[in-house]
Amino acid sequence: MMVRTLQPVLTGLVSAVVGYASAFSIVLAGLRAVGADSRQAASGLLALCIGIAIAAAVLSVRYRMPVAIAWSTPGAALLVATGHVEGGYPAAVGAFAVCGVLTVLAGIVPWLARGVAAIPGPVAAAMLAGVLVPLCTAPLRAMAEVPLLAGPVTLTWAVLMRYARQWAIPGALVAAVAGLAVGGTAFPAASLRPDPVFTMPAVTLPALVGIALPLFLVTMAGQNVPGAAVLSTYGYSVPLRGALVTTGLVSTAAAPFGGHAVNLAAITAALTAGPDAHPDPARRWIATLALGAGQLALGLGAAFATALVVASPPVLVTAVAGLALLPALASSLAAAFTGPDLREAAAVTFVVTASATSIAGIGSAFWGLVAGSLALLLTRRAASRPPEPPDGRQEAPSPARGIAAARRRLSGLPFGVSGTSSRTVTAAGTHSAPSLSPTSPRSE
Prior knowledge:
The protein has 18 helices and four strands. It is mainly alpha-helical. The strands form two sheets. Strands 1-2 form a two-stranded antiparallel sheet. A two-stranded antiparallel ribbon has the order 3-4. α1 packs across α13, α2 packs antiparallel against α11 (240-254) and α4 (88-108) runs antiparallel to α11 (240-254). The protein is globular, with a radius of gyration of 22 Å. It starts with a helix and ends in a 7-residue tail after the last strand.
C-alpha cells in the first residue's frame, strides 16, 4: 500500500529532475543571449520553476489529471537564435509578457486559436527546425575548440542514449562538470538563497515581432499541442482551455522576473501520465503535483546552476544544449518535409530561419515564417491550375486535398482534446496529435 502511495510521488520527482537537468542550460543560454546578466538569468530560472509549481498544482488539483507543466524549451532555443533586440533585456521581458497575454487570449478568444491552427504544420515545424539548427551544431564546434571537455560529454551522451535515454542529458551534464573540475576550473561561490530580480518590461516593435510572436507560435506548436497529444494517448480528455489560461497567466506574472514561457509539458507528460506513475489513471495526477514540488525545490538552486554555466566555456554550454535538442530537431525536420505539397514552402521557411539573419532588428524566425507563407501562397496558386491531361479532360480534384483544406478552415480552439488524428512534433519525438472537440462538463 505504501509503495502504491509513493509511486506517483517518486515518478513526479524523477520527472522534475530529468526535465530540469535536461534543459536548464538552454534556458540560461537563451536569457543571457537576449541581454540578461547572471543575476537576472538566475531570477528567470527561479521564476519559471515557481510558475511550473503553481500551474501544475492548480491544474492537477482542479482537473484530477496528470497535466504536466514545463518551461518552453523551443522558446529558449529561439532566444539563443534571436540574440540582442532593440531595447535590450527590458524589451525581451516585455515580449515575454506579451507572449503570456497571447496564450491567455488563445484560451478565451476562438479566432486567435483558429489563426494559430491555420499555420500549416510543416511550415511551423520548419521554423522550429531552423531555430534549433545553430544550437544542434554546437557539439561539433565544441569538439574543435575544447575537445578534452566536449569529447567525454559527447561520449557519455551517446552511451546513455543507447542504454538509458532519459538520463542522457543529465549524464552529459555530470560529465561536463566533472571535466571542468578535473581541469581546475574555479567555480564561483553561489548562494542557494532565492534572489528574484524585477525588471520593468519595455515594449519595442522589434522585440514584439522578433520575440513575442515567434515565442508564442513555437510554444503553442512545440509544447502545448504535443503536450495535449501525449495526454490524449493515455485516455485523458485534456482541458486545453483551462491549461492555456492558467499557463498564460503564470507566464505573464513570471515575465518581469525573467520567465519567458510556461506551458504544457511533452516529455515529462509521458512519464507522469503513463502506468509507471500509478496503475490507476485516476491517481496519476499526484505525480504532476510532485513534479511541481520538485521543480520548486530545484528552482531554489537557480543561482548555483547559473554560476555553473557562467564558469563553463560558452561553447560547452551550447554543446550540451544542442545535444538535448537533437531529438526535437529530428522530429521537426521529419514533420516539415513529410508531404510533397508543402515541401518547398517548408524548405524556404527552414533556410531563412536557420540563416540567423536579422533584418530591421527583427530575428530570422519571424522572417522565416513570412517567407514560408509567401512561398506557400505562390506554390498553391501554381498548383491551382493543374495541367490538362492529354485527352483534353480536366483532372478531377483530389478528395484528400479538399478534406485537408476543410479541416484547416474548421480548426478552432480545442476546449477539450481526446482521441488521435494526426502527427505532431514534440521534443520527445513524433506523437499523434489530438482531434479537437468541445470539452465535456466533466473536464471543464
